[in-house]
Design goal:
The complex is a heterodimer of chains A (235) and B (285). Chain A is an alpha/beta fold. Chain A has a single domain (3-87, 153-232), classed as Rossmann fold (3-Layer(aba) Sandwich), CATH 3.40.50.300. In chain A, 37% of the residues lie in helices and 26% in strands. Chain A is built from ten helices and ten strands. Chain A has helices at residues 41-49, 71-76, 94-101, 110-120, 122-126, 137-149, 167-182, 194-200, 218-222, 225-232, and strands at 3-12, 15-25, 30-34, 56-61, 64-65, 79-82, 155-159, 186-190, 203-208, 211-217. In chain A, the strands form two sheets. A six-stranded mixed beta sheet of chain A has the order 6-7-8-3-9-10, sandwiched between helices. Chain A is globular. The two termini of chain A are 31 Å apart. Chain B is mainly alpha-helical and 285 residues long. In chain B, 73% of the residues lie in helices and 1% in strands. Chain B has a two-stranded antiparallel ribbon. In chain B, helix 1 runs antiparallel to helix 8 and helix 2 runs parallel beside helix 4. The radius of gyration of chain B is 19 Å and the shape is globular. The chains are: A alpha/beta (235), B mainly alpha (285). The interface between A and B is medium-sized, with 30 and 24 residues.
């Protein structure tokens, strides 16, 4: 397994955001984490990236225990998060935002990789010198994903990428995510858009109050009535 | 060059280096209102080393800058524990403590001030100011400069990208300390006299104004701000005491109409030669 999370606990003061969670993602797999607001999905991703400390449990990545490593150290091991709300640095240009994606890299191939991102997203190439604030929501999401790709991820975590996008753009976003999956990138996808997420994922798990209440193959989950129940808050 | 013009140019060079010292931290999102304290340490260190300890002038200036760099490094740790207005207060208090200490230390002349018997010429100041300006343009184009701007704009996003925010801010404080100390050293050796009362809170406020009014987004900002603040009062000199009134009104208008400062990144890109001479079609290249 590429990513193995065992008995993970995340606490903010009295708030127990993630409770004894187990999760694994294989090297070429797309796993989706579903659940209603406040279920602990964002806390889970932030803890895996090292942005939020974990109270107990272990996180292993590519065979190595990374539980105590800093976010830059995890980025250097090619584990990268596309955060909720995209978190584009709007005062920097599109190009500078992409450079920030490679901030933790020291190799010489960065420029070549940036060019590859421009080939993939021609909209970004056309606006490379402009401040990121002029981008539309869809373009900002492209930039956030492009920026993450510059860390040369083995595993990309996406936190609600479809948030705030029009249905047409959501469609395109999921085409992109499926494309990345087909290229062999492992993906851990947190989504509110259950239908679309289960379409591209091979496995899914449903979180509620910080724990996993349901997990299984994506096509089986889709028809499971307990999934709808989790969103409505009942059992 | 007339004595008057030479005097204005000397003050301009010193203020410009001083402003860049404050700009480095501001560009990384930290407001340092203790500028006068750092400058005082640089001035007294260089004055004492060159005058009393008999060190060569160049060595005195460099040692003074090293000392203030170290002070900046040490101050950054407690200062960075605070945020926003509390950080402003913490650095302000530091400046006051330094001035108070110098005022009551007899080795440095106490309230009588200290005469510095050695002298550096105007060309040294011009050279130093030019060098520092070029250095700052270079710094802002490096990976560190990019990280500083990213932190200033969005600290959370910078952390996600793997920026060690604390390390970058400590580096900014250290570089800022060196530059403010350098400006103080040049001041002491050009004017030949230092007194603790000169390094007061108003000086810290003024240099911060140069930076904030000039703009913190690019290295052009402190340059524009220093030109603006050094030249404007001189131009208004004919108006007698009304010049302070006019000056104050200009500052208030600037704050109200252009809070990002005179020079912004958007302005730079609009004024870039490629944009001005482009006939269209080459957008984004």
């Amino acid at each position: 397994m590429l990513l193995e999370v065992a008995n993970l606990d995340v606490r903010y003061g009295r708030n127990h955001a993630v409770k004894g969670l187990n999760l694994s993602v294989a090297a070429d797999e797309l796993v989706t984490v579903l659940g209603s607001n406040g279920a602990g999905k964002t806390s889970l991703l932030r803890a895996i990236q090292g942005l939020t400390p974990c109270a107990s449990g272990t996180i292993r990545f590519a065979g190595e225990d990374i539980t105590r490593l800093s976010p830059p150290e995890r980025l250097r091991r090619n584990l990268v998060l596309v955060p909720e709300g995209r978190q584009i640095v709007i005062g920097l240009t599109v190009h500078e935002n992409l450079q920030m994606g490679a901030y933790c890299r020291a190799d010489a191939a960065v420029q070549q990789d940036v060019d590859a991102i421009y080939d993939r997203f021609p909209n970004l190439a056309a606006r490379r010198k402009m401040p990121a604030s002029v981008l539309s929501g869809g373009e900002q999401q492209m930039l956030a994903i492009g920026r993450a790709l510059l860390a040369r991820p083995k595993l990309m975590m996406l936190d609600e990428p479809s948030l705030g996008l029009s249905p047409l753009l959501v469609e395109r976003l999921f085409e992109l995510i499926a494309g990345l999956r087909n290229e062999g990138l492992a993906i851990l996808l947190v989504e509110q858009n259950t239908h679309m997420a289960l379409e591209v994922a091979s496995r899914g798990l449903v979180m509620e109050l910080g724990g996993v209440v349901l997990e299984g193959a994506a096509d089986l989950l889709r028809d499971d009535e307990r999934l709808a129940a989790a969103y409505l808050g009942g059992h | 060059m007339s004595g008057y013009l030479a005097g204005v140019l000397a003050i301009f060079c010193i203020n410009l280096i001083f402003a860049y010292g404050i700009f480095v931290t501001a560009a990384a999102g930290q407001i340092n209102l203790g500028g006068a304290g750092f400058q005082a340490i640089g001035a007294y260190a260089a004055g004492w080393l060159a005058g009393q300890a008999g060190l060569p002038i160049a060595a005195s200036i460099m040692t003074a800058a090293l000392i203030t760099a170290l002070v900046g490094l040490l101050i950054s740790f407690p200062a960075l524990r605070t945020r926003g207005v509390y950080m402003v207060l913490a650095t302000f208090a530091f400046g006051e403590v330094v001035a108070g200490f110098l005022l009551h230390t007899d080795v440095f002349g106490g309230a009588m001030g200290m005469v510095v018997p050695l002298h550096v010429d105007l060309w040294v100041l011009v050279l130093a100011a030019t060098f520092v300006t070029l250095l700052m343009f270079f710094l802002m184009a490096t990976r560190l400069g990019l990280a500083m701007r990213a932190i200033n704009d969005d600290e959370d996003a910078s952390v996600v990208m793997g920026v060690n925010v604390r390390a970058v801010q400590v580096a900014a404080f250290t570089i800022g300390g060196a530059l403010t100390g350098l400006s103080g050293a040049l001041y002491a050796l050009n004017f030949g006299f230092v007194e603790a009362q000169y390094f007061n809170a108003l000086l810290s406020i003024y240099v911060l104004l140069y930076v904030l009014i000039g703009g913190t987004q690019t290295a052009w900002g402190p340059l524009a701000g220093t030109v603006f603040f050094t030249m404007l009062p001189e131009l208004f000199r004919v108006g007698g005491s009304a010049r302070y009134l006019i000056f104050g009104i200009v500052i208030v208008l600037m704050m109200a109409l252009r809070p990002e400062g005179i020079v912004t990144r958007a302005l730079i890109s609009r004024l870039s030669p490629r944009r001005l001479f482009a006939t269209g079609g080459a957008r984004g290249n």
